[in-house]
């Protein structure tokens, strides 16, 4: 019962906040728009950071890939470029020689 109550609460909060935002029908303040601009990269960083330590000796490859992905994100300001660079570097560093 607690599981379904939790799911119902999450659904109510998610759809309630979206419905409230749609019902406003007015432009957001400039401060809110500046804040929302950083949400995607903050969520991405929160998902990636805990896994940087890696396992089975992958830590160095993960750190190097994350550093180059951060550089790509800084230079291009495109999240998809950072993801592509990070994944490519990580895969290349894992190839056994």
Question: What does the model show?
Answer:
The structure is a single chain. With 97 residues, the protein is mainly α. The protein folds into 2 domains: 1-29; 38-97, no CATH class. 76% of the residues lie in helices and 0% in strands. The chain contains 5 helices and no strands. Helix 4 runs antiparallel to helix 5.
Uncertain segments are none
Largest sheet: none
Structural class: mainly alpha
Rg result: 19 Å
Oligomer: single chain
Order of helices and strands: HHHHH
Keywords:
mainly alpha; 97 residues
Q: What's the layout of helices and strands?
A:
Elements: H1 2-24, H2 30-37, H3 39-48, H4 59-76, H5 79-93
Quick synopsis:
The chain is an all-alpha fold.
């Amino acid at each position: 019962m607690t599981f379904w109550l939790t799911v119902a609460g999450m659904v109510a909060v998610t759809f309630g906040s979206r419905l409230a935002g749609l019902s406003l029908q007015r432009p957001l303040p400039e401060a809110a728009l500046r804040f929302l601009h950083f949400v995607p990269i903050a969520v991405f960083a929160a998902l990636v950071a805990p896994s940087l330590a890696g396992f089975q000796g992958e830590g160095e490859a993960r750190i190097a890939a994350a550093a180059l992905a951060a550089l790509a994100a800084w230079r291009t300001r495109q999240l998809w470029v950072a993801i592509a660079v990070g994944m490519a570097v990580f895969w290349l560093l894992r190839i056994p020689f």
